[in-house]
Write a structure and sequence with these properties.
The chain has helices spanning 59-76, 82-93, 99-121, 128-153, 160-184, 190-213, 227-245, and strands at residues 23-26, 39-42. A two-stranded antiparallel ribbon has the order 1-2. It starts with 22 loop residues before the first strand and ends with a helix. Helices cover 60% and strands 3% of the residues. It has 2 domains: 1-48, no CATH class; 75-245, no CATH class. It is globular and about 55 Å long. By secondary structure, the chain is mainly α. Helix 2 (82-93) runs antiparallel to helix 3, helix 3 runs antiparallel to helix 4 (128-153) and helix 5 (160-184) packs antiparallel against helix 6.
Length: 247
C-alpha cells in the first residue's frame, strides 16, 4: 500500500523536523524571475504582521557625500590663485585701460589662474602634462581675448553693468578654451565639456559683481576680480564640475 503523499502546501511542520514558526507570503520580490515571485518570511506567532525593513545602510551615501564635499572644497581653494595672478598682471600693465594692457594683463592673469586650477584638476586625467598645456595655456589665451573685447566694448568702464559685460566676455572665451582642454585631456566627454564652458560666463560675471559689491576698488581697472569674487565663483564652479563628473 502506498504511503500518503505529504501535504507540501502547509509548511507548519516540515517532514522529519520540529514544528516551525508560522510563515506568511509577501511579494512579489522580482518581476524578472517568474519562479521567485514570492518570498516566505518568518512571523513571530499567530496573527503577527510581516517584519518591516529596519532602514537602509547609509555607508555608501555618506562616502559619496564626503567625496563630493572634498571635490567641491578642493576646487574652491583654486580661488586663491586669483589674487596673485591679478597682482602679477596689474604689476605688468598698471591698468587695463587700452587694448594692449588688456591683452597682456589677461594673458598673465589667465596663465596664473589656469596653473592654480590645474593643480586641482590633474588627478582626474591620465594626461596631466597635456592638461597643463591646454588648460593653463587656454585659460591665458581665453582671458586675454575675452578681457580685450569686453573692456573695449564698455570703454574700459568699471560700473556694475560694465563689469558684468567684461565678465560675460571673459567667461565665454575662457569657457570655450577650458572646454577644449577638458576634452583633449579626456577629463570630460564633449557634451559635458561644452556644458562646463557654457557655465563660465555666468560664473565670471558673478565674480566681478561680488568683488564690486564688497567695496573693492574696481576703479583701478584690474585684469581679474578679487578674492571675494573668486571664492564665490570657484565654489559654484566646484559644484558644477562635481555634478558634471557624476553624469
Amino acid at each position: 500500500m502506498r504511503p500518503p503523499t505529504p501535504d507540501l502546501t502547509t509548511p507548519d511542520r516540515p517532514i522529519g523536523g520540529p514544528r516551525s514558526p508560522r510563515r506568511a507570503l509577501v511579494g512579489p520580490v522580482s518581476d524578472h524571475d517568474p519562479i521567485d515571485r514570492w518570498a516566505v518570511v518568518r512571523m513571530t506567532g499567530p496573527g503577527a504582521s510581516p517584519p518591516t525593513p529596519t532602514g537602509r545602510d547609509h555607508t555608501a551615501d555618506d562616502a559619496l557625500a564626503s567625496r563630493a564635499a572634498t571635490d567641491v572644497g578642493r576646487w574652491t581653494l583654486t580661488a586663491f590663485a586669483f589674487p596673485p595672478a591679478g597682482l602679477l598682471a596689474i604689476t605688468a600693465v598698471s591698468r587695463v585701460d587700452d587694448p594692449v594692457a588688456a591683452l597682456l594683463g589677461g594673458l598673465i592673469a589667465g596663465l596664473g589662474i589656469g596653473a592654480g586650477q590645474w593643480l586641482a584638476l590633474r588627478r582626474w586625467t591620465g594626461h596631466p602634462g597635456r592638461l597643463l598645456m591646454w588648460w593653463a595655456g587656454g585659460t591665458g589665451a581665453g582671458l586675454a581675448a575675452g578681457l580685450t573685447v569686453g573692456a573695449h566694448v564698455v570703454g574700459y568702464g568699471t560700473t556694475p553693468a560694465d563689469l558684468a559685460v567684461v565678465g560675460l566676455c571673459s567667461g565665454a572665451a575662457v569657457g570655450l578654451a577650458q572646454g577644449v582642454a577638458l576634452l583633449r585631456a579626456q577629463v570630460l566627454p564633449a557634451r559635458l565639456a561644452l556644458q562646463w564652458g557654457a557655465a563660465q560666463p555666468a560664473l565670471w560675471t558673478l565674480g566681478w559683481l561680488v568683488t564690486e559689491a564688497f567695496g573693492i576698488e574696481v576703479e583701478r581697472q584690474f585684469a581679474v576680480f578679487g578674492a571675494t569674487g573668486a571664492l564665490a565663483s570657484s565654489l559654484l564652479a566646484g559644484v558644477v564640475l562635481r555634478w558634471l563628473r557624476t553624469r
